[in-house]
Amino acid sequence: MSYKILSLDGGGSWALIQARVLQDIYGDLNGHELLKKFDMVIANSGGSLVLATLCNDMKLSEIISVFEDEGKRKQVFSKLSFWEKLKWRNIASLTNVLGPKYSMERKLSGLKNVLQAYNKLMLAGKTTQPTLDINLNLLPQIIGKPELQILIVGFDYFRQRATFFRSNTKSKTDAFSGGKYYQISLGHAIHSSSNAPVNYFDAPAEIEINQLNGNDIRKTKMWDGAVSGFNNPVLAGLIEAVTNNTIPLSDYKILSLGTGTGGQAMIADYQTSNNAEIQNIYQKNKHNKLAFTDYNLTFVSDIKKMSTSILGDPPDSATFIAYSILDASLSNTACLVRINPCIKPVLNATTQIFEAPDVYKTQTDGTENFARIMDLDMDAVANEDVDLIKQLCVNFITGNNGFTLANQLIRGDGNGMHLGDDTYAKAKSRWLNCNPI
Predict the structure, then answer these.
(1) What does the pLDDT average to over 350-374?
(2) Euclidean distance between CA atoms 323 and 320, whole angstroms
(3) Tag placement on the chain: N or C end, fewer CB within 10 Å?
């Protein structure tokens, strides 16, 4: 017996990567057919958008087309008008440096409009409601796998803690509520989970929850689940599974899909090293924008950096902790597969200069495009920005001239690989070996 978990990171428009990876592994499946291959799906933010489209039974090619459609992206990332920026809570955004850029209120209606264009479940006669209006606890039956568990992560604005929206009304991890199980629609769960604060949306998401078989209906406010530290939700998914099952740890099979990891500041601490070789690398790269970005350490830059740091997973902690639960010996034999393109420059051993990865250097304007994608925010809306993500998918999945973009390790660095797989091809092969299609 095996228990399969699909974990989808947050990352806004970059969640296109997840749809492309799923299509490459499984072919152009319908969403329900794909979901039925797993026992649990847990998602945050951009990953929850992918989950919503899967619940809507859209083909993976259709999901990809949604992420590639600028008009649809603008419905979700609806920019604040000049007059909206004049509101006191939004006034900082007038600087174009710090402050919200998008409307929380228009995001939910935008999500509904995007999915309504496909309307798969109503057309198939599976429901009389739009997909986003269906409560989470009803979705597994509609999908065709009643035992499927769906989890979406949010952050409670008032209580300042993580909130897990579940389809499983009998989850042991929710037993402390004394049987007062509160339910939420798929749309409101997605709205909560994809509502990144400070530099993205202008207010916490306003949602409604209702007590199952009770008379308590209330409204509350939520931020993105990344605020609670679950931008990569794989650890939360494993804990949910382990506490609700009695199977051996070796039976868990986890596919964890990211939305790109990386960053500059490769030599941020080299200047202070007393090692002459490291100092030499610093001197050669101190003006290299691929290796280092000077943040000028102002109060405003500190706020901006901290507000966007929730979107990362430093230092790959969630996947590593989850892995160590399954395989405390760290033998790299457990079936926890992390697939996530690694967007970092590579140190040329001869010149000691940080350069673009080989797969980019072999392409026209490759180094320039690599520098651009390193700077690209998660809220990529313009076609020229999403084109960079599309190119990244090709460089990661199929490569160019024999080169591919590196895959994120579960634990490892430039000195060697300790856990995980350093290329997409190896990670895909590992997943298929322990989960034959």
Answers:
(1) 93
(2) 5
(3) N
Pairing assessment for the beta strands 182-183 and 3-8 based on DSSP bridges? unpaired
Residue matched to tokens 């199977």: 247
**Contact (Cβ atoms closer than 8 angstroms) between residue 152 and residue 52:** no
List phi, psi (to 5°) of 332: 65, 30
Helix (H) or strand (E) holding 152: strand 149-156
- Alpha-carbon span 47 to 14, nearest angstrom: 9
Give residue 306's pLDDT: 63
Q: For the chain, what's the residue count?
A: 437
How many whole angstroms separate alpha carbon 186 and alpha carbon 166?
10
Model confidence pLDDT, tens digit, residues 13-40:
999 999 999 999 999 999 999 999 999 9
Task: Name the amino acid, one letter, at 37.
Answer: K
User: 137 pLDDT exceeds 80?
Assistant: yes
For the record, the structure tokens of 62 come out as 């259709």
CB 16 within 8 A of CB 67: yes
> Residue 252: which region, alpha, beta or left (left: phi > 0; alpha: psi -120 to 50)?
beta
How far is residue 209's CA from residue 162's CA, in Å, rounded to a whole number?
15
Q: What is the 3-state composition of the chain as percent helix, strand, coil, each rounded to the nearest 5?
A: 45, 20, 40
Amino acid present at 399: G
Is the separation of the CB atoms in 417 and 425 below 8 Å?
Answer: no
- Sign of the torsion angle spanned by Cα atoms 160, 162, 168, 171: negative
Question: Model-level pTM greater than 0.90?
Answer: yes
Side-chain-facing half-sphere of 372: CA atoms under 13 Å: 15
Q: Rounded CA gap, 55 and 36, in Å?
A: 11
For Cα atoms 168, 43, 80, give the angle at the middle one, nearest 5 degrees. Answer: 120
How large is the greatest C-alpha to C-alpha distance in the chain, in angstroms?
A: 70
What would the two tokens of residue 152 be? 């979406």
For residue 69, give Cα distances in angstroms to 76, 209, 262, 285: 11, 31, 25, 38
What is d(CA 372, CA 393) in angstroms, rounded to the nearest whole number? 15
Whether residue 226 has pLDDT greater than 80: yes
Q: Which residue has the tokens 């199929």?
A: 398
Q: What one-letter code names the amino acid at 357? A: P
- pLDDT for 422 equals 92
Give per-residue pLDDT as tens, 235-271. 999 999 999 999 999 999 999 999 998 766 678 888 8
For 173-207, the pLDDT digits (tens) are: 887 666 667 889 999 999 999 998 877 888 899 99
**Residue with the two structure tokens 């228009």:** 106
Q: Is the pLDDT of residue 73 over 60?
A: yes
